[in-house]
Amino acid sequence: MKAYESFRIKDLELKNRLVMPPMCMYCAPRSRPTDFHRAHYGARALGGVGLVIMEATAVLPEGRISDNCLGLWSDDQVTPLADLVGHIHALGARAGIQIGHAGRKCGAAEETLYAPSALDYSDDGRYRTPKAMTQGDIDRTVAAFAAAAGRALAAGFDVVEVHGAHGYLVNQFLSPLSNHRTDGYGGTMEGRSRFLREVLAAVRTEWPKEKPLFLRVSAEDYADGGMTSEQMVAILRGVTDWVDVVHVSSGGVTPVLPPVFPGYQAAFSETIRRGVKLPTVAVGLITTMEMVEEILGNGRADLVALGRELLRNPFFPLTEARRLGIELPWPEQYRRAFL
Description:
The chain has 339 residues and is α/β, with parallel strands linked by helices. The chain is built from eleven helices and twelve strands. 32% of the residues lie in helices and 15% in strands. Strand 11 (280-282), helix 9 (289-297) and strand 12 (303-305) form a beta-alpha-beta unit.
């Protein structure tokens, strides 16, 4: 099965094409990993995925989605993350980290909210009105992305993923629904994607060319006047000098909920893979190995991320292989389960 074939991109070789996607756990006091994170990520590494991508990790304190999100804005955050990387490696997987900034969806209580424009995310009072970013704010944030990538390298991560999806800051700049700027960062698609290009170029000053850089995007805003997958293809064609793999999600820039069904985002992955000529990761209610195989076998993605299934069953890659009659080695300590 293609799912269990190895995958190589630059200096990274994965033992299979199954990925644990970044999923916020909201349980990192002082924005540092805890024993929970060690157990959480270690279990999925032991359970057989090729790549574990850690949850959204803020590049600045005001970039946190909640008060209890991980951070990578300070050198003293490197060592605990390096310990976690070593743990993931020891249990058989490669380790990635998603770096991002929440923008107007920051839920950290004491922080100022920043966004491309002073537009509320919703009218229900859940979020405060953000401050429209000045050039100084933009420059500081771009530099913070670069510094976080350098710290990720120091921590030993194999992959850095820039979070450009789900209505967070990079996505806010890209979407005309949240970006009403009239300067060089707004208006046209070229202007709205300028912040993304600056972030990626800055990250590449710290993240070596021989190491893969992932970019997560929302291919569809699900609202009139918002981004579509065809527009995202045009934007992504302009960032291929920096990006190696596109992790394709959707939604989040407004409270509008997407129409959810099994594999509902795979078509977006296929559109971007074919239109941009970059490897993609498909994600979104992919719940069986038969679905994984259909996506990979039909060229809709190169890797498949399994979120909910890995929350329910950390050993999903191994249990599915056994169900399908594929011989994969289980951890020595657990082999008696099949005697």
